[in-house]
Amino acid sequence: MQEQLIPPVGDEPIPADIRTVGNAFRISLALFDRDGKILYMNRSFARECGVDADRAVGQPETYFTGDPMLPDVFLYQRMICRTIRRMDGFVFITAIPMFDEAGAIRFVGMTMENEAALNEVRRSFEALVASTERSVHIQSAADRHAAILRPLMGRHQSMVRLREFLKQIGPSSASVLITGESGCGKEVAADCIQALSSRSEQPYVKINCAAIPAHLLESELFGYEPGAFTGANAKGKKGLLEVANGGTLFLDEIGDMPPELQPKLLRALQHGEVYRIGSTKVRHTDVRIIAATNVDLNQKIVEGKFREDLYYRLAVIPVRIPPLRERKSDIFLLASYYLSIYCGKYNRNLVFPDDIEELLKSYDWPGNVRELQNVVEYYVVCSPTSEGLSCEQLQTVFRHPVTGPGRPGSTLEDKLDAYEKQLLQEALEEEKSLRRAAKRLGIDASTLSRKARKYGLALHRESGA
Ligand SMILES: Nc1ncnc2c1ncn2[C@@H]1O[C@H](COP(=O)(O)OP(=O)(O)OP(=O)(O)O)[C@@H](O)[C@H]1O
């Protein structure tokens, strides 16, 4: 059988050949599994950290550094570099995530270089640069895509898949309909699609259909001729469909598009033809439409409030953004990210104690990432000391009552049940099969299946549930 060359994710030991190769290099190298535990450390890395390479296996990153980098690697899903000051000078650490075919992080490779080694490289590099006339920086397409998609954070499988999907659909000119609850990131996704498209250098115009009264929305979208109506600009005005010509128009809250405007919009999308108010002259426009809504358009169609033909024109590519409660494992990552942002903004130094972490994970976040952002800002601004706020104090700004294990006042049994449910839900969401979810939890598949039924959790299709 052929030797496995790619390091496993923790299920099997690293093959001896790989260890030999790793030890032969001067570079300090370590590998971590998806839970941030050390899978392998070569001799040079162990020497650099003053630890025993074999004993280090299975330990968390904090075993050799007090300032962990892996949470950021898992959060941003990209390479992170950091310089750490030590008694004997600086060390430069690089951590690079390695992905599996489904786009999930499989393991993380980390290298560590000390100041002396880097100085040696720098001297060679300076000599090389001095001997050349020019240095060219080439940014790969992968780097560019990663940079564009960075604002759409999350390492839950659904977000990894979403980013992959956006990369695939971004370049086309097809209309996209983004659905999802309020505050879950529809506009962030629209911005990513636009930036990934071949129209990224062309106009990008946004309009919120719910924020503008119907009569004004028509003149905003289609424009008008001089003297078309009382109070109109004497020179007339271009509509946004004309302004966005060659580029992209983002129609936010499309579900609020007044019924009387829908046929006119359909015509503009279908034939690229726009008539300004008060004009019979046709103007041609080539616009990619990205629309977003948090209402159920199918329901609106049934109620006769939204045209079915317009729906199909808009939803050539449907994109659904999952609400935060369907990707619970992202809650704390996002909360930690916003904590660092707001601590920087308000010059505070705060952390989340364990009970606050539990509370944040227990809550359903009806307002999604926007609500989470607000709650974290409240936590930073309103904490009287560096101890932070208590759970009871923080919950006063939640829109709904908390029902998970962090809920104060519930019995030990309630809390244990809620915590068990949360762990099962996370494992079922993140693992591809029931068997893998059961393995991760350390129970057999039939027990997992029974417990999942008890808590009303959806099982993977392969389980036959
Ligand atoms: N995946 C994410 N990573 C980081 N920030 C996010 C993410 N999703 C949303 N946000 C942040 O949450 C806030 C709300 O996002 P956005 O406006 O895109 O939501 P929306 O779904 O368009 O909301 P609405 O339906 O109310 O218009 C923004 O500040 C955005 O930066």
Automatic annotation (TrEMBL):
Residues 152-381 form the Sigma-54 factor interaction domain. GO terms for biological process: regulation of DNA-templated transcription. Keywords: Aromatic hydrocarbons catabolism, ATP-binding, DNA-binding, Nucleotide-binding, Transcription, Transcription regulation. Pfam families: AAA_lid_14, HTH_50, Sigma54_activat. InterPro entries: AAA+_ATPase, AAA_lid_NorR, Homeodomain-like_sf, HTH_TyrR, P-loop_NTPase, PAS-like_dom_sf, Sigma_54_int, Sigma_54_int_dom_ATP-bd_2. PROSITE patterns: SIGMA54_INTERACT_2, SIGMA54_INTERACT_3, SIGMA54_INTERACT_4. GO terms for molecular function: ATP binding; DNA binding. It comes from the Bacteria. Gene3D superfamilies: 1.10.8.60, Homeodomain-like (1.10.10.60), P-loop containing nucleotide triphosphate hydrolases (3.40.50.300). This is HTH-type transcriptional regulatory protein TyrR. It comes from Lawsonibacter hominis.
